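Hey Z.,

So I finally got round to the S-adenosylmethionine thing we talked about over coffee. Here's the setup:
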Amino acid sequence: MLNEENSQKIGTLYIVATPIGNYDDLSQRAIATLSQVDLIAAEDTRHTGKLLSHFGIKAKTFALHDHNEKQKAQQIIDQLNQGLDIALVSDAGTPLISDPGYAVVNLCREQGAHVTPIPGACAAITAVCCSGLPTDRFQFVGFTPAKSKARQEFFIDAVNSGITSIMYESTHRIMASLDDLAEALGDDQQVVFAKELTKTFETFFNGSVSELKAFLTNDPTKQRGEIVLMLPGKPKLIDDVPPEARKMLALLESEMPMKKACGIVADYFGMKKNALYKTIIDEKG
Ligand code: SAM
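And the result:
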């Protein structure tokens, strides 16, 4: 903080995560930081005001949103250089993750200003860790596009990445998005739907697109609220299965289920089991 004794001090920009629905998820460090900084840059000052008053935090806030952050970035750095500590928060979750803050942090890094995280909730990470999908590798791809054709391509790219994809979805277009998902990848495409995480009506649904559509159509209240969609990556196919592996597969195939045969052959030839199985099934059409 700025006072006469430390007027030479350079301030810090704290990137503070706030809850995505349950105020109890605000960390002790976040509370301490928000209480101590000189200024809070908030996506929506009224929204953040409610959080601050819940925790009895009195702080000076100013608006920092998509439309003004480029202009404000240099001003924030000047304030840091004057010794002020500033916290940057968004309406919910981790700033910069489909939220404002990138222009400011980018300029801070360019100009050598001090930026430090106060980590906490993020809907993408909260969703994927309970999804049942592989978490060894995953990608966050932001909001689904607004237009149908772009959305279909987006879903195809996501699945073709070969790893779990996490995306944010708007309550207004969830059904249209699921129609596009089915159109692009078929009714049987697996999907995980997570809604209202950390809130009273938290819901997870794992199943095919058609099952999810039926689930949401039967109870339209489930379409409302904040939604994360996740898609499993399609295992990469093997371009050139060696002829010896094919011979061995042909022998085993008559004795056991194809999946088991592929497991044995993949082990023997040092290939990925799932990739071999998918390749053979793909070839058989
Ligand atoms: N920065 C936030 C974060 O760290 O998750 C995301 C902000 S983005 C503008 C808002 C979107 O995040 C929502 O439309 C929804 O897709 C997702 N989201 C936020 N809170 C959520 C929650 N409690 N449950 C499910 N999805 C949520």
